Amino acid sequence: MSGKKSFCVVIMAGGRGTRFWPLSREKRPKQFLPITSRRTMIEETVERLLPLVSYSSIYTISDGGQARLIKRLLPRLPEKNVLVEPKAKNTAASLILTTASVYLRNPRTVVAALCADHLISKRDVFLRKLEASAEAAAKEEVIITFGIPPTYPATGYGYIEISRHKVQNFRGERFYPVVRFKEKPGLKQAKEFASDGRHYWNSGMFIWRADVFGRKLERYAPEFFPYWKRILRGLKEKDDRILRAVFREIPATSIDYALMEKAEGVLMTRGDFGWSDVGSWSALAEIWTRDEANNALHGESLVIDSSSCLLYSPRKLTALIGLQDVIVVDTKDALLVCRRDQDQRVKDIIEALKKRNAKKYL
Amino acid sequence: MSGKKSFCVVIMAGGRGTRFWPLSREKRPKQFLPITSRRTMIEETVERLLPLVSYSSIYTISDGGQARLIKRLLPRLPEKNVLVEPKAKNTAASLILTTASVYLRNPRTVVAALCADHLISKRDVFLRKLEASAEAAAKEEVIITFGIPPTYPATGYGYIEISRHKVQNFRGERFYPVVRFKEKPGLKQAKEFASDGRHYWNSGMFIWRADVFGRKLERYAPEFFPYWKRILRGLKEKDDRILRAVFREIPATSIDYALMEKAEGVLMTRGDFGWSDVGSWSALAEIWTRDEANNALHGESLVIDSSSCLLYSPRKLTALIGLQDVIVVDTKDALLVCRRDQDQRVKDIIEALKKRNAKKYL
């Protein structure tokens, strides 16, 4: 790459996942939990980048409360890089704001928009792909995305369909033209996608040059382009009222839906770097080290006749007896015991707590 | 009955059950846990007696640590009634010591030896039977015991075989001559016992006059009689050294084995007063109030798609999802999650903790 100056990373840290309840709470969503290592996922995300990007080129975007947490967790991140959105309005709004901030410093800066709460186990592959993508995005009028090679017929992800023609190469990596972005499929279609070699999971990670992003908005997302212009003005004039007004008005839409599904000139490179969005306790069980009976255990434990269990209980001794496929998560004020194939029902717990107005557990 | 003066109750409170781990600990066994009501089982045991027996006629026998706990839980119990054994040596030693103490005050006092950790749901029936038994024991050279009508072919209890001949009546209750005490049977024999109408579970509760007890020992347990005499002397001379010496030497044997299995002149009355020895978490699940899905829940909880579970978690919110027949017990420093039909394996946890020398959890 031609120099770190022209490349920066934006870490989207505003997510509000509830699927790791009772460990995750409204004020401490997944990206702020130490569930994939001893460090929180956002710390891992930053650490992973450091061989390629210095702290001064790493930005985060989140709400104010999360920003305070980020400053505490990542004290070496320059304070001015910890961007705050006036209101959570999904990724289109976040990325228009952050890309506009970068644009005002240097319009030709390449921005890599990454997620704070994804696991990437093959760091070297990831950094190689990221560097090549940044180079591609610097040179061409394109948006780059990482497509994850499907390992099973997932119905919980959107898919990216690629063409095998007009494949481009940068620094030895292959970049495929994106034919279209597809919404989460049904199982039948997911099975086709998972096996036809032309479909990849949409990772939600994108790389673009700031000026290219503006032009793509203008051309393919004209209803969002005025917000881009207003935000640029608000930032230039340091007028927070403009930003707040935009964030009141702007539709709460993902960047995928607002721009990617409509844009031309999008390239995909294979994200074959051990990616997981760690979407549930059982997904986490696949990631953790397991004992000979397939139990993933975090915390002091005594296990008798149990298999394929996940235990997160850092505060106390936990004994498991005669259990198969059970998730046990103990926190200071709440305990979850859940059959593993039912872990998506944690959201029903959240709903029940909201109905009870039991805020302290949310 | 001819007056409360000639009747007293001894509550055997020295047990060291581990089957309610992690709630029960070495220093807080079952009788000191509030598991059958908001009060501890020993408090329940004393309260149950109060219509018939005043505090001044209720004794406890335990070790010194337990005695301190008893004084705290039962402040109205006279301090001198809280007897301490120099060393835990099973029920033969405890009951020789306590009966000897009573004997020295009045040899014709009837002693009812009861357990601190049994549940009796039909209090009125129990007190009526107890009163009639005390009257029988006051008048005759007999030992009375309560036999529990078997409700299933239990292999975990000893049995009492009775004769239907020469049945005696006191105050409207029937007293059957005991043919013999039988050790815990195998399943085949248990099935016979449970259905032949001549076998009852040995409840471990006995009623005798202090002087009769001494004579029964002399005749049927001659190897224990010298200890009885030495203890009487030790108590009379207030010489603790004698008591300590006896407790070093005396075999650690149950009163059943030491005396009951050999004695003649033992009568049994039916203990049909809703008895349970509450021997395990799953036994407790049968006793607690249950919801429409047969879940026994103690503590704030959210239950989704779960049935026949037991939850004890008084300190925090607990969510159960998709579980059948699972026991969850949360305490300050330890958590148990156990398949219900495996709850006897809690003893394996205790063994493992001993091996690890993890004393704080024992």
What attributes characterize this protein structure?
homodimer; 362 residues; alpha/beta; Spore Coat Polysaccharide Biosynthesis Protein SpsA, Chain A; 2 domains; 5-stranded mixed beta barrel; 4-stranded mixed sheet; 18 strands; disordered N terminus
Reconstruct the topology from this structure.
Two copies of one chain form a homodimer.
Chain A: E1 7-12, H1 41-49, E2 58-62, H2 64-73, E3 82-84, H3 90-105, E4 110-115, E5 119-120, H4 123-139, E6 143-148, E7 159-162, E8 168-170, E9 173-182, H5 187-195, E10 199-209, H6 210-220, H7 225-236, H8 240-249, H9 255-260, E11 266-270, E12 275-276, H10 281-287, E13 296-298, E14 301-304, E15 310-312, E16 317-321, E17 326-330, E18 334-339, H11 346-356
Parallel strand pairs in A: 1-2, 1-4, 2-3, 6-11, 13-15, 14-16, 15-17
Antiparallel strand pairs in A: 4-10, 5-12, 6-10, 7-9, 7-10, 8-9, 9-11, 17-18
Helix pairs in contact in A: 3-6, 3-7, 7-8
